[in-house]
Automatic annotation (TrEMBL):
Ranges for domain O-methyltransferase C-terminal: 87-289
Protein name listed in UniProt: SAM-dependent methyltransferase
Lineage top rank: taxon: Bacteria
Keyword Transferase: yes
Domain O-methyltransferase dimerisation: 2-61
Molecular-function GO terms, alphabetical: O-methyltransferase activity; protein dimerization activity
Keywords: Methyltransferase, S-adenosyl-L-methionine, Transferase
InterPro entries the record matches: COMT-like, COMT_C, COMT_dimerisation, SAM-dependent_MTases_sf, WH-like_DNA-bd_sf, WH_DNA-bd_sf
Active site location: 220
Annotated organism of origin: Nonomuraea jabiensis
CDD domains to which the protein is assigned, alphabetical: AdoMet_MTases
GO biological process terms on file: methylation
Record has Amino-acid biosynthesis as a keyword: no
Length: 311
């Protein structure tokens, strides 16, 4: 349903299967069988002879609604990501990612396949939406002149923070193939005159002179040594009195159910070394980079903001 865009095509009213198949580019008899199953789980409903309508539950699979999960479903079902989870037993047996063995490092894989990269970027943008609202309402950016968004993707988080803080300027750093799209997003948001987009690799360096450095869903991609290397580059680049903000899912120290524990298995499947971490784990990383953990702000949607300052 997500990949074929069924919810988008049903957004404006019921369609019969033949018409819906034509719009989706699908084989009508096969789609008819899928619709029968979708109706049984409540995301579409019959609306006359061989006609289907979208339900309220199914509307979250539209591309154009707040809280859409379409990009998440497409990412989970994308061939290489599906392979990663299917090969999780092999990864656990060997202690190294079957995904990496077959496809290479994730970001190199995405750079080679723009169509997958677009799905991934859509997913990351949608995923960030909920906790970005928490970021701008629950963290005090008073006095921040420049924020550097390290590996800032398309720039959606930076754009939200800048709109909420009109006196702030921003710098976004990301790899070449990502940074090219970020400039377009920031310009479309009317923020081109307040932003600089820099193409580069945070293992080499990060832009200097920032008051705040944001790393959102970055450190969990890397093992401890690489994470410390990134943090040291940030520590070296920041102004005196600067801060580092780490936006991640933070694992509880006990056995309670938590979204991060499911995400951690996906990190295990896709990366060699990447993992979700606890507050204590992050405190150790910061100390290794001459930083000290300060406040931790819950942002909602399972995410937290960890603030660190130079020791």
């Amino acid at each position: 349903m997500a990949e074929l865009g069924v919810a988008d095509h049903l957004a404006h009213g019921p369609l019969d299967t033949e018409e819906l198949a034509a719009r989706c580019g699908a084989h009508a008899p096969s789609l008819r069988r899928v619709l029968r199953e979708l109706a049984s789980i409540g995301v579409v409903r019959p609306s006359g002879d061989d006609r289907y309508a979208l339900t309220e539950e199914g509307s979250v699979l539209r591309s154009d609604v707040p809280g859409s999960i379409r990009s998440s479903m497409r990412m989970l079902g994308e061939e290489s990501f599906w392979y990663a989870m299917g090969k999780l037993p092999e990864t656990v047996r060997e202690g190294s990612s079957a995904f990496v063995s077959k496809y290479g490092e994730l970001y190199e894989h995405l750079a080679r396949h723009p169509e997958i990269s677009r799905i991934f970027d859509d997913y990351m943008t949608a995923r960030a939406d909920a906790f970005t609202r928490g970021l701008v309402t629950r963290y005090d950016f008073t006095g921040v002149g420049t924020m550097v968004d390290v590996a800032g993707g398309r720039g959606s988080i930076l754009a939200t923070v800048l709109r909420a803080n009109p006196d702030m300027r921003g710098i976004l750093l990301d790899l070449d193939h990502v940074a090219a799209h970020a400039g377009d997003v920031l310009a479309a948001a009317g923020l081109a005159d307040r932003c600089q987009v820099v193409a580069g690799n945070f293992f080499d360096s990060v832009p200097s002179g920032g008051d705040v450095y944001l790393l959102a869903s970055v450190l969990h991609n890397w093992g401890d040594d690489d994470a410390v290397r990134i943090l040291r580059n940030v520590r070296h680049a920041m102004k005196p009195g600067g801060r580092v903000l780490i936006l991640e899912v933070v694992l509880p120290d006990d056995a309670e159910p938590h979204l991060g524990k499911d995400l951690d298995l996906r990190m295990l499947a896709i990366f060699n070394g990447g993992s979700e971490r606890s507050r204590q784990d992050y405190a150790k990383l910061f100390a290794s980079a001459d930083l000290e953990l300060g406040q931790v702000v819950e942002l909602g949607a399972g995410a937290s903001l960890l603030e660190a300052k130079p020791i």
